[in-house]
Amino acid sequence: MYTQAMDIAAARGEDPAPGQVTDAGYQAEFDAKIDRGDFIEPKDWMPEAYRRTLVRQISQHAHSEIVGMLPEGNWIGRAPTLERKAILLAKVQDEGGHGLYLYAAAETLGVSRDTLVEALHAGRAKYSSIFNYPTLTWADVGVIGWLVDGAAIMNQIPLCRCSYGPYARAMIRVCREESFHQRQGYDLLLAMMSGTAAQRDMVQDAVNRWWWPALMMFGPHDAQSLNSGDSTRWGIKRITNDELRQKFVDATIPQAKLLGVTVPDPDLRWNEARGAHDVGAIDWDEFWSVVNGNGPCNQERLAARIRAWEEGAWVREAAMAHAAKSEARAAGGR
Ligand code: BYC
Q1: First CA to last CA across the chain, in angstroms?
Q2: What is the predicted pLDDT for the residue at 23?
């Protein structure tokens, strides 16, 4: 099997330590690696539930990157200057690259990219709720960079230390690029806020629409987070959904003040005793409705992905034909 225990003594043909040839022995070795903070690598034995959880999370993450190209891609042709167009083009391309690293990381767990993409297109796979909201104005591009990429960085930095090596390594590069994305968003908003009253209103309107969906990106409250227990035990999740959401709010509110915008939460207050902001109640009905396919743009997003996949069929066929030809030439010594 793909995830066979090649680094375990029995698999190397050495005398196994007592008990190591059983699943319990493999499990003990796996647990010890997790406890030591070592990485689990593709060739290592791993419990099936650990593998399934990683495939679930990494593939959802990959789909989010690819679907996440669509809301901003919508503005590439309408960027107000050549410089902004070049920056946005680079950012959207980066998201495509992140999707590719992540599909590649998922493939190390023995599942093909085609299988994962098929699940997305059939509506069986999840992707981040945030990408099911529309981008109505140019200010939305800035707010996505500032809030959506900002939330993504907050979530992804701890994933650089996650226990599965290929996922952790992919995250290091992704996080570097995301921090450029966040800065471009904030820079764009600073420019708009020093413009006309209409531009400032546009920024405030975009913040009003994206604030709550950005907080929902971190997932349900810890008490409702079904996967957190296992993921924390296995070192996939290092910080809980609520802790990350709190860190995001505390980091973002001073940035909002500097920018000159408010967030649409009448209950937001600095809590001196906790040394953190209190926030109002999140509308979880809206969250689950979007996650379950009924957000404002779910159908449009899936339709766009399916169309792109179908229209790209000839490129995949040409690449496969070229690879087969190169292989045949190499085998023939030419
Ligand atoms: N949207 O038990 P929980 C980006 C699901 S893209 C949809 O807490 P877990 C960017 C969850 O999957 C960044 N579904 O789950 C790209 C679970 O359902 P299943 C995307 C959500 O996994 C372009 C159920 O709710 N980032 O940066 O422990 C442009 C219960 O949740 C959401 C990632 O994917 C949601 N928001 O924790 C700009 C990060 N939240 O799977 C930017 C990697 C929860 O049991 N993922 N659900 O059917 C994670 O860190 C974790 O999977 C989550 C959820 C924190 C999201």
Answers
A1: 35
A2: 81
